[in-house]
Design a protein that fits this description.
12 strands; four-stranded antiparallel β-sheet; four-stranded mixed β-sheet; 2 domains; KIB1-4 beta-propeller domain-containing protein; 3% helix; mainly beta; KIB1-4_b-propeller
């Protein structure tokens, strides 16, 4: 069963579908028109949902890391200045984050953690741990009027 995850389904009714597997899908119709999509599979309901936000995690130069809280840290490296955000696939909510510049060169083999269950909490920090080296990157998800706390920092 395939359902289209429209904006009205993303509220509390979508939470009954958790946990979700989110994956990139290229239809096997033989056409190379770049019409890829993101799909969500509900493990609990055994249903497949087409995702409206497929551009957010589209193939190509995008990178993403999952969190234990169900959010996905998404980075689009396809632009001059990368577009970075936290995205909740069950609600469709996006939380913009400071751009990750090329100077950070964050590898894919990182683990992403949030310091709070709710990333809009004033003290919440996003942390990326490099699994292959003793490196980590972090930034605050919300600003306190001070933009210096809203930038990515690296520790080695």
């Amino acid at each position: 069963m395939v359902e289209h995850a429209d904006a009205t389904k993303f509220g509390s009714s979508m939470s009954s579908c958790l946990p979700l597997l989110v994956f990139h899908h290229h239809p096997g119709d033989g056409q190379e028109d770049g019409d890829d999509e993101m799909l969500m599979f509900s493990i609990s309901k055994q249903t497949l949902h087409k995702n409206m936000e497929h551009d957010l995690l589209a193939a190509g130069s995008s990178m993403c890391w999952t969190t234990a809280q169900g959010w996905i840290l998404a980075q689009d490296r396809g632009t001059m200045s990368s577009s970075t955000c936290l995205w909740n696939p069950s609600t469709g909510t996006e939380l913009p984050l400071p751009d990750l510049g090329e100077e950070h060169q964050i590898p894919y083999q990182c683990r992403c953690l949030l310091s709070h269950k709710d990333p809009t909490h004033p003290g919440c920090v996003v942390v990326l741990f490099n699994n292959a080296a003793p490196d980590l990157w972090y930034c605050h998800t919300t600003g306190d009027g001070d933009n210096s706390s809203r930038r990515w920092r690296r520790y080695s």
